[in-house]
Amino acid sequence: MGFFAALREDVATARSHDPAARSSIEVFLAYSGLHAVWGYRLTHLLWVAGFRLPARLLSQLLRFLTGVEIHPAATIGRRLFIDHGMGVVIGATAVLGDDVMLYHGVTLGGKSRHHRRDEKRHPTLEDGVTVGAGAKVLGDITLGAWSTVGANAVVTKDAPPNSLLTGIPATIRPADPDATESARGVVYDV
To answer: Does the keyword rRNA-binding apply (predicted)?
Structure first.
């Protein structure tokens, strides 16, 4: 996908997710979450090309300007939307699929204090995952596609696709209890 096509796709994604978006030009100029994603793409290119220090310095400048901290080494798919943005942190080994949505105050952080460069320490969010305001998703875990994490939940264990995760520590339920007969009424500790 070309540069301008990606910009148009990002603006369209923001407009489709935010009912307060009045125009594409407003989204383009005023959405800090979108600016953070665009900045991440630049820092990620620098990181992959081996310009690690400039990538980190630019990511810190973007953190100051947008209130969103995305490590340049993170792997992020298409159409990420960060609503309001302030306080979002995405760690170095985090992997986000396509169509992920994050609200303000979300942390995709690590639990390990080891300093091995090849260790995966941050979560993987598969396609379509939504993470509510203030939620913390910690460690090398995977949240299955089209799952939803409730506001202020603390998630430290894997979740299958189409899950609803709420509470501290988070418990997991099927997002639609009627979706499968076998899942009805079952609650798992996460």
So the answer is: no
Global pTM value = 0.87
* Alpha helices, H only, the chain: 3-17, 24-30, 32-48, 52-66
Residue span of the structural domain in which 184 resides: 3-189
Total count of domains within the chain: 1
Q: CA-CA distance, 14 to 17, in Å (whole number)?
A: 5
In angstroms, the CA 67 to CA 104 distance is 10
- Do you find a cis peptide bond into 169, omega within 30 degrees of 0? yes
- Report the chain's mean pLDDT, rounded to a whole number: 90
Written as one string, the DSSP assignment of 92-134 is TT-EE-TT-EE-TT-EEE-------TT---S-EE-TT-EE-TT
Q: Considering only CA atoms, which of 176, 175, 170 is closest in space to residue 188?
A: 170
Domain with residue 130: its CATH number is 2.160.10.10
